[in-house]
Structure formats: C-alpha cells, structure tokens
Amino acid sequence: QLQLVESGGGLVQPGGSLTLACTASGFNLNYYAFGWFRQAPGKEREGVSCITSSGGSTTYADSVKGRFTISRDTAKRTVYLQMNSLKPEDSAVYYCAADYEYLCTILHGNDYDYWGQGTQVTVSS
C-alpha cells in the first residue's frame, strides 16, 4: 500500500528548530521527487521546498530560504525538512508529497501523486 507518513511536528518557540520526517512505503522512492507544502488556517496551500528524485537539486520558497533544508535518505525511505530560526508565520500543517518525476516543483502541488496526512507545526512563545 502506497503511503507517506509525516512526523516531527510540534510546538516550538520563535527562533527554535524542528525536523520533519516523511517516511514512504509501498513504492520505489528512486523514481520520485518529493515536496513539502504547508497550509495555515484561512490561507492557501503553499509550497515550501522540494527535492529531485536523485537528490541532486533542491528548491525553496523565498520565505524559508536560508532557514529550511530538505534532504532525502533513500536507504531509510525518508525525506526530511530541517527547519531553523522558526517564526510564528511558519505555523501551519505541513504535508509531504511525492511526484513520479525527476524534477520537482513547489508551484504546482496538484502535480504530486501521493500525499501524507500532515503534521502540525506551531511556533509560539
């Protein structure tokens, strides 16, 4: 069964860090690009970061560039999003998604084939 499961969300103070993990099962990760998206209450879904199927190229939204890092570990079947210097505006439900493509995009979430259930990130003092 094809499945993506996110973990690592939680409550963190401004300036703090969290690492999200997306563990995949039921398909060969080598053929899939991965993306992280987020959605805050009352706002549209936003692409945060993505990584190509080879892991050789990454893309970041301007709002997170320099603070977030995406990576993948094929042996562990996991994609990570390291988030540093978190701000209250980073609060949202974060979703992992997989796309049967070499390249990746953070502009077109509808291109992605599989989605996780999401994990809540709250940045607050």
Would you mind describing this structure in some detail?
It is a single chain. The chain has no helices and 11 strands. By secondary structure, the chain is an all-beta fold. Strands 2, 4, 5, 6, 9, 10 and 11 form a 7-stranded mixed β-sheet that branches. Strands 1-3-8-7 form a 4-stranded antiparallel β-sheet, with no helix packed on it. It has strands at 3-7, 10-12, 18-25, 33-39, 46-51, 58-60, 68-73, 78-83, 92-99, 114-115, 119-123. Strand 5 and strand 6 form a beta hairpin. The N and C termini lie far apart (40 Å).
Summarize the structure.
By secondary structure, the chain is an all-beta fold. 0% of the residues lie in helices and 47% in strands.
Class from helix and strand fractions: mainly beta
Summed over residues and divided by their number, the pLDDT gives a mean of 96
Describe the biggest sheet?
A: 7 strands, mixed
Task: Give the tally of β-strands.
Answer: 11
**Elements, N to C (H/E):** EEEEEEEEEEE
Instruction: Tell me the strand percentage band.
Output: over 45%
- What overall geometry do the principal axes of the alpha carbons give? globular
Could you list the spans in which at least 5 consecutive residues all have pLDDT below 50? Answer: none
Counting DSSP H or I runs of 4 or more residues, the number of helices is 0
Q: Distance N terminus to C terminus?
A: 40 Å
Rg from C-alpha positions?
Answer: 13 Å
Helical content band: under 10%
What topology emerges from the helices and strands here?
Blueprint: E1 3-7, E2 10-12, E3 18-25, E4 33-39, E5 46-51, E6 58-60, E7 68-73, E8 78-83, E9 92-99, E10 114-115, E11 119-123
Parallel strand pairs: 2-11
Antiparallel strand pairs: 1-3, 3-8, 4-5, 4-9, 5-6, 7-8, 9-10, 9-11
